[in-house]
């Protein structure tokens, strides 16, 4: 069962590893990211951030979609974390059962504008988010479980 899909450019860190896994009562975290799979140092770092008692799985986007759709992840209370809005959209488009997206944080660059405390989006990402909302996906901004979830359209 997918408990949450979250965009967080830091992927797995204290806030995600402990606040969200505890609040969601998950037993497995799936890091869905193409670049992590090619970077042994990042994989090692992510493994060290994993909370005790929670399984950590790392797969590229394509393999993540295949695994979820195959049913192999159904036995877990699954928390999926992706690095970007584009990765989240790819998962949502590839997995029919994902109907919600939590936006946690993305990096500020010279091409982004800030829409909340930690969310920075490019014009292309704004279009992706609007398309997801138009398709009926519940897209909210929420850094930590204690914060109120804000519908993304209020911030755009």
From TrEMBL:
Main location: cytoplasm
Keywords for this protein: Cytoplasm, Kinase, Phosphotransferase system, Sugar transport, Transferase, Transport
Single GO term (MF): protein-N(PI)-phosphohistidine-sugar phosphotransferase activity
GO biological process, one term: phosphoenolpyruvate-dependent sugar phosphotransferase system
A GO cellular component entry from the record: cytoplasm
Subcellular location: Cytoplasm
Record-annotated PTS EIIB type-4 domain positions: 1-156
Protein name: PTS mannose/fructose/sorbose transporter subunit IIB
